[in-house]
Amino acid sequence: MRERLEELRRHGLAAVEGASDEDALRAQEIQLLGRNGALTVLLRELGSVPAEQRPQLGAAANQIKDALAAAIGARREALRQASLQRELSGAGFDASLPGPPLPSGGLHPLTRVSRELEDLFTSMGYRVLDGPEVETEEHNFDALNIPQDHPARDAFDTIWVTPPGSGAARGGAVCLRTHTSPVQVRALRRFGAPLRAIAPGRVFRQETQDASHDHTFHQMEGLVVDRGVGVAHMLHAMHALLEGLFGRQLETRLRPGYFPFVEPGFELDARCPFCSGGCRVCKQSTWVELMPGGLVHPNVLRACNVDPEVYSGFAFGLGLSRIAMLRYGIDDIRWMLSGDLRFLSQFPA
Ligand code: PHE
Asked: pTM of the entire structure?
């Protein structure tokens, strides 16, 4: 018995030393110390040796077990170090393997809605236009048939700007644009008729902030001018827009609406996309206000050197912020430009 134990120690230690990788080592460990391993088998025979020899042999067996376990631990550590050294040395390093993924952000809900609509309207032959956010009074108001003392100016809580060095006071010539409609004027003057364009962008108003008002928000202007353009064309564009936004056609209704730069002017409502019998979004009415629009006022065409006897057009003003809020169920407009990561991270890529 003693010899066999001694033999097991010698043979075991040599095998552990000879294990060339962690898998081989693990196999040796099971063979030597496992539940059916060599040592266990020997210990089972301990019952059949004379009682007075048992304590000694038992102690020797335990010693061997500890020695083997220690050798296995040391060998395992040595193998790990060696493989770490190999990695560090660059051998076997494959630069073509993909690295760990970098955390990536997502697109802001406004960007998503805006890009979707840009794609949709581009596919229908519209240009996507941009305009300055600091705008002249002439573009923002006068050319849009809103002269100086027109009461409609009060509806726009305008933020007036004093250009550096000009000394101009309130009522001066420059403001933060209160809507995207001045892009109508710039586009018509630049490109003339016929014209199809949309213009998404930021607009500004002197608003007291609450859940549905912010001093900065987003709109998307639409403008089509050509021969013989009428309300039916406008409705078609609005319905295409609706379908693009909600993926299906919604029942709509037109109400009269007043804007000095359109005549006639309308408000388009759609059946609430979120309920059939009234909900929080439609305030129990089953209708949601979608966008105002109308036929471009002849005075606007004239101000842009387009002959209203030859051309007519329609324009609409979509509240992008509102639409993005509807689409994603955002209940407070102030989240939109908050830059708050708790909000933004809800829109992963
Ligand atoms: N510019 C208007 C607003 O911001 C909306 C509008 C645009 C209405 C185009 C009619 C036509 O309130």
From this structure: 0.71
